[in-house]
Every structure is written in structure tokens, then in C-alpha cells.
Design goal:
Length: 617
């Protein structure tokens, strides 16, 4: 019922897209022979039979140590490990051996063509093939390179994790979150993953995923992928609009516009029948974990209405554009009135629900990103940022009344900090997220108590939403849109600026066109920024952000001195070469991924020692 990959595995998720799960049968017959473990004639896995080994039906000492297990119905529990092969190897100092196991994701019939292909497969053959496959895809999109390998590798592998989680069933590309955990479809996760594809150079993947969204529109016009979750309608409109903004694909806009009209009609009608004239009360059963008017659902609906206006104008529907704009203005005024009343009781903090109930922080953190419903400097935004950051543990957000860590929820605050020019906080957030990734750069979701054993139990990695949020965040740190302006280097780390260091951004799509640039530090006090833009719809301004840890004394653009305003400069639209003179501020503190790791380990060790000595952290 909670979508996680628990045993026994059910036949499928209610969404109907889990092809891995099967219904447990106590009469299954298990056997093993010729390097295969089988269940009812289907191969579960292949094992190397030429090394000394022991075969067992289960982990129980059943005395069977032959090279073959005869077909046998074990009548075991659904959670019993079965089909065990154990190896007894003695290695001399410095000696090595290799054991190759082959596990098909879905069991294959013994003697079939698929079984023969798997049996003959070689790890040494498939590893370079797999590497070439992913390298080819990585070269097709945006590449971001900074002087820290951890950052670069996490950016790359996060794309791979989201693509691995895509299923193609018939003509549908179904963006799930993980092949095991949350192996189903959510509009909220998929909307962000689509955005990631769009802003990092994979618009085809984005449109393939978006084509699947339309099947979730209900007869009344609402978009619902999971019962009671009314954020979907805004997320779809937002994702549709953002895809058009960055691709300028009018054919796509015309294709989805009828669905947009129906969705806006649902929002309008739902508000009219609601006592607060907001989206109706609901019980999403997730995220905020409340029943009532969900704050985030209304932020999303407003974000969606903004892009509904964009799509109406793009397709020449001026009357609808005016109607949508009027609905947005009325909705925003109503929502702000409710927020003002609610936050007077919370010292400005925007709560998860608007009816005074307790809930978990989630959509209430979306006032600024992705749709900038409120002004970045609105006191409610500041209060909410401060209140949610106070719930951080180990540098990242918590969930379930601060009991557990949450590995991607804080990205909403990080994006807000970028827009508010809180550079240092944003960089610290990035490092905190990276500290909590696995050895293969995978993020989890939750279920890990802070300063605990970091065991996420069955909340399996990699989490596709984490992967998308991290890629979007790093991209936005490098290059992002804000209204009609293009922002460069909104937040960079002190570890990326030093003699011989460089930051490279290649083929980054934006709403204005494709941006490529490099920032190279020729000395401790000088850097050169080379910008190679290909604008199709030029921005009104290009804003270059200057690092908080550097004191910038001079900026020249194509040989002309540019005025410095605080920690930013406005560059000419078609500038190519920027020269920067600066010195590191004496009060700036070191900051890097390695330092973040060492600080985390030191704090962890100190807490462990206190726990051993006092029984408390």
C-alpha cells in the first residue's frame, strides 16, 4: 500500500506498470543444475559452476551438498531466501579470483533464446558496451565540469539513474522513480524529471515522458496520478509550459492546449465551489500528510496558470490567455489574503496546510521556486526559509516531525537561496546533499534517523527525484532564467576558484537559447570568462554573479569596463570575453566537498563518543 519494494512482492502497483512483480506461489518447484538456479523451469540466475561450491534449497542445513538440486516444492515463506550457492575458496596473499553471476531482471525460460544469450554473456564484453552506451548519451546533452570530481560524477550519473528508471511499454514512455522502490508513476516526480531533461539538453526524452501525462487527465479536467493529490494539475501545466518555453515547439503547444483548457476549467470550477476559493480540501495521503487545504497544491496551481497563459499566447488563443490571466490574478489575490491571515499566527512561517492543522513541510517551501508566486524578499519567504532550515540535521532537511533525514526536500530551499542571492548557503546545501550520496553517487529519500546508522532499510536508492533535483540545482547554479534575464554563476564554491582551475558549461539550453561558457583562473587574482551564446530569443539582461568569498575590483567586457553593483554585474547581451580582477576576502572560510566530508565525520565521531559515554548524543 505504500509503494515500497517489500517482500512478498505483489503482482503490480495499482498504476499497472510494474512488470517485475509476481504473485507468490507456495507450490513453486526449485531446482539447480548446470550453473542455473530455476523456479518452475525459469532461470532465476546463473552462477559459475566450475569453482568449488555448495548448493542448497534454503539457508537451512539440509545436508544437500551435491552439484544439483532436483525439482522440489519447498512450501517456504514468501520471505525465505532460496536457491543458495555457497563458495569455498582459499586465496593466497595477493591472489585473486573472479566469480561471474548473471541475474536477469525478469526470470527467463530455460532453453529459450533469451536464456542462451544470457548464458553466453560475458562481463568483460558487456562492461565496455555499457560504458559506450552511456557515454554516447552523456555527450548529447549539457556537460558541467568543476574542479571537484564528486560534483561532476554525481551530475552525470544522476541522468543515468533517471533514464534507467524509464519504462517503455507499447508506445508509452513511463517515467518511474526507481526500478524497485516506487516503481510506479507520479506526476510530481515525473514533472521535475522532465524539467531536468529539458534544462540539461534532452528535449526528446522530455517530450516522450510528457506524452504519457495526458492519460492521467480525468473527465473533469483534473490531472491525478495518485488519489487525493491535487498538485498534479499545476505540475502538468507547469511542465507543459516550461517545455514550450525552452524548446519553442509550437506543435507541442498546440497538441497539449485542449488539455490545458480543460485543466484550467477544473481549477476555476473547483475554486468557485470551495469556501476559501482555493483548491478544495483533500487528503493526499503523502508528503504533507494532512487533510484540508494543502498549501503546496495552491502554489502549484498558480505556477500552472502562469504557464497556461504562456501556452495560450503561443498558440494564438488571445481570448483564452486573457481569461487565464484573469483567473491567475483573482486566485493570487485570494491566496495572498488567506496566507496573510494564516501567517499572522505563525510569525510569518507558511505552513503545509491552510486550516491550522499540523503537517509536514513540503509544498509550503515552493513560494519562490519553481514559479515565483511571492517576491523573493517577502517576509513570509524569509520566515519559512528560516523555520525549515531550523529543522535541518546533518546539513539536510528532515521529515516526519524531524525524526528522519530527507535527502532531496532541501533542494526547494536551495533554489530559493539561489534566487535570493544567498550564495554561501546554496553551496553548503549542495555539499550536504553530496555527503549523503552513496559510493555510486545515488540519493535516497527518507527513513534514516539523523546521526544514525545511515541504513535506509527498504527505501531503496537511487531515488529518481533526488537525481533530477540535483542536476537541476547544479545547472541553475551555473546558468538559469529569471523572468527575462539570464543569470550566470549564481553560486560557485571557493574550491572551484584558484590558479589553473576552470569551470566549464557546455551546451546548456535556456529559454533564450543555448549557452556555453568557461571561467578560467589564470592566477589567484584574475579569471577570464569566455561566453559563447547562441540566442534565439535574447534575454533583456545577462547578470553575472560575483562570488561572496572574493572582493572584485574590476570587470571588463570585450575590453570595456563594466560597473559593479554589489555582488553582480550586468553584461552586454552579445558579450564574449570578460576579464575579472579579484582577491580572496580575508574573512572567507574554506569550503569544499572534502572538507564537508571531514567535518561530517568529525561530528559523527564526537556524537558517537558521547553516546558511548553518556547514552545520549
Amino acid at each position: 500500500p505504500d509503494n515500497r519494494y517489500r517482500r512478498p512482492v505483489t503482482a503490480s502497483h495499482p498504476g499497472g506498470y510494474n512488470q517485475i512483480g509476481v504473485t507468490y506461489d507456495p507450490n513453486w518447484k526449485y531446482s539447480a543444475d548446470n550453473g542455473t538456479v530455476q523456479r518452475d523451469g525459469q532461470v532465476l540466475y546463473y552462477f559459475p559452476s566450475d569453482a568449488p561450491h555448495v548448493l542448497k534449497y534454503t539457508l537451512k542445513p539440509d545436508g544437500n551438498e551435491s552439484g544439483m538440486l532436483k525439482p522440489k516444492a519447498l512450501r517456504i515463506l514468501p520471505t525465505t531466501p532460496v536457491g543458495i550457492v555457497q563458495y569455498r575458496l582459499t586465496l593466497k596473499p595477493g591472489e585473486a579470483t573472479t566469480l561471474d553471476f548473471k541475474l536477469p531482471v525478469v526470470p527467463v525460460a530455460a532453453g529459450s533464446t533469451d536464456a542462451a544469450k544470457i548464458a553466453s554473456a560475458s562481463f568483460d564484453t558487456y562492461l565496455p558496451q555499457t560504458t559506450l552506451f552511456w557515454d554516447k548519451i552523456l555527450r548529447q546533452g549539457t556537460n558541467i565540469t568543476v574542479p571537484e570530481a564528486k560534483v561532476n560524477n554525481t551530475f552525470k550519473v544522476s541522468l543515468i539513474y533517471d533514464l534507467i528508471a524509464r519504462e517503455k511499454i507499447g508506445d508509452n514512455y513511463i517515467q518511474t522513480v526507481n526500478d524497485f522502490h516506487y516503481h510506479a508513476f507520479w506526476l510530481r516526480d515525473a514533472s521535475f524529471i522532465v524539467r531536468m531533461y529539458d534544462v540539461t539538453g534532452y528535449p526528446i526524452f522530455a517530450q516522450q515522458d510528457l506524452d504519457f501525462f495526458k492519460r492521467w487527465q480525468q473527465p473533469d479536467g483534473n490531472f491525478v496520478s495518485q488519489g487525493g493529490q491535487f498538485d498534479g494539475v499545476g505540475q502538468v501545466l507547469w511542465a507543459y509550459g516550461e517545455h514550450y518555453r525552452i524548446t519553442h515547439d509550437r506543435a507541442f503547444a498546440e497538441q497539449v492546449f485542449p488539455a490545458v483548457v480543460k485543466a484550467v476549467a477544473w481549477i476555476t470550477e473547483a475554486r468557485q465551489s470551495d469556501p476559501l476559493h482555493l483548491l478544495p480540501t483533500t487528503r493526499p495521503g503523502d508528503n504533507e500528510n494532512i487533510t484540508g487545504h494543502v498549501t503546496g497544491h495552491n502554489f502549484w496551481a498558480l505556477d500552472g496558470l502562469k504557464n497556461a497563459v504562456v501556452l495560450a499566447k503561443a498558440t494564438g488563443h488571445e481570448a483564452e490567455a486573457q481569461t487565464f490571466h484573469h483567473e491567475y490574478d483573482d486566485y493570487l489575490a485570494t491566496f495572498l489574503h488567506v496566507l496573510d491571515s494564516v501567517t499572522k499566527k505563525t510569525d510569518g512561517y507558511i505552513p503545509p496546510g491552510l486550516d491550522g492543522q499540523h503537517g509536514q513541510d513540503w509544498g509550503n517551501m515552493l513560494a519562490i521556486y519553481p514559479g515565483m508566486v511571492l517576491d523573493p524578499n517577502n517576509p513570509m519567504v524569509t520566515a519559512t526559509l528560516d523555520a525549515t532550515r531550523a529543522k535541518y540535521r546533518e546539513g539536510i532537511m528532515t521529515y516526519d516531525d524531524e525524526k528522519d533525514l530527507h535527502d532531496y526536500l532541501a533542494f526547494s530551499n536551495t533554489e530559493t537561496e539561489l534566487i535570493r542571492d544567498q550564495q554561501e548557503l546554496a553551496v553548503k546545501d549542495l555539499y550536504a546533499e553530496l555527503v549523503h550520496t552513496s559510493s555510486t553517487h545515488a540519493g535516497f529519500e527518507t527513513d534514516i534517523p539523523s546521526w544514525g546508522d545511515r541504513d535506509f532499510e527498504d527505501n531503496l536508492t537511487p531515488h529518481g527525484w533526488f537525481a533530477a533535483r540535483l542536476r537541476i540545482c547544479l545547472r541553475d547554479m551555473m546558468v538559469r532564467e529569471e523572468g527575462h534575464d539570464l543569470h550566470l554563476l549564481s553560486a560557485i564554491s571557493p574550491a572551484w576558484i584558484g590558479k589553473g582551475d576552470s569551470i566549464e558549461v557546455n551546451q546548456a539550453p535556456t529559454n533564450f537559447g543555448v549557452v556555453t561558457f568557461s571561467l578560467k583562473s589564470t592566477s589567484a587574482n584574475h579569471a577570464d570568462l569566455h561566453l559563447d551564446s547562441s540566442f534565439t530569443d535574447p534575454p533583456q539582461r545577462i547578470i553575472l554573479h560575483l562570488p561572496w568569498f572574493m572582493k572584485t575590483t574590476k570587470v571588463m567586457a570585450d575590453g570595456k569596463t563594466i560597473a559593479i553593483s554589489g555582488d553582480r554585474v550586468a553584461l552586454p547581451i552579445h558579450v564574449r570575453d570578460i576579464s575579472i580582477d579579484w582577491t580572496k576576502r580575508s574573512d572567507s572560510k574554506p569550503l569544499s566537498y572534502d572538507l564537508a566530508v571531514s567535518q561530517y565525520k568529525a561530528e559523527y565521531a564526537a556524537r558517537y563518543q558521547r553516546l558511548m559515554q553518556t547514552g545520549k548524543q
